[in-house]
Amino acid sequence: MGTRGTGLTDERRGEILIAVVELIAEHGVSSVRLSDVAARCGVSVGALQHHFATREQLIDEAFYAYTLGVVRQIQELSARGGDPWKRIMRALAAYGDVGDFRQRSRLWVEFGSSAARSERQRERIAAIHAEWARPFVEAIDDGVADGLFTPVADSVTIAETILATMDGYDLAYAAGIIDLGAEGVDVVERLARMVAAQLGVEAAGIRPGWRQSRHVE
Rounded distance, CA 103 to CA 107, Å? Predict the structure, then answer.
């Protein structure tokens, strides 16, 4: 996808995309040049251009590969069985635990900003959001069907609210507005309380168990 020629192995291509992600997290997307990526990877600029037509294409592919990988891990954790609430808790816990949260937050904010100027990136972000929402939508629908949840809105609306709240925490963390390592700051617990209220979990007699959210069996 997006490369030219056949000389780039999947492993080497992955290493290049990881280097791009690291540089964006360190310096911001506007500051990353092909020469920076080439120096980090120990290749020439010409070699990069042989496989990635433009700087924009390289950055776009790096963003998509990284964020889709994070979302796939969240989906995998959510799909490990259990009742719908446990699946939701796994997805919430994974938000805080999968990958480097600081790097993820900075990348998401960087690419969210650049998407305002790129239709291609807007399409990619929309695709990532749809994949990210899917575990929540499916678990909510199953919980409603089982009579476990009495939601205040439809499953898609609640899932979009969850993701929008996560996006807000990403922005606050990346901007230094909130310190997620500070005592008493537990984003997963806060998210769990919000989701429980929207699904009527406590009213249904389900023990939310948000303080054990990172260790859901």
Answer: 6
Q: How many C-beta atoms surround the C-beta of residue 160 within 10 A?
A: 16
C-beta of residue 34 within 8 angstroms of C-beta of residue 49? yes
Whole-number Cα distances in Å, 66 to 15, 41, 61, 147, 191: 11, 17, 8, 37, 23
pTM (predicted TM-score): 0.78
pLDDT at 215 over 80: no
1: burial class by Cβ within 10 Å (0-12, 13-18, 19+)?
Answer: exposed
Beta strand extents in the chain (DSSP E only)? none
In this structure, is the dihedral angle defined by the CA atoms of residues 109, 110, 115 and 121, taken in order, positive or negative? negative
- C-beta separation of 188 from 93 below 8 A: yes
Ranges of each domain in the chain: 10-205
Name the residue with tokens 């964006």: 24
CATH annotation of 10-205: 1.10.357.10
- Over residues 19-58, the pLDDT tens digits come to 988 888 788 777 889 999 999 988 888 888 888 888 888 8
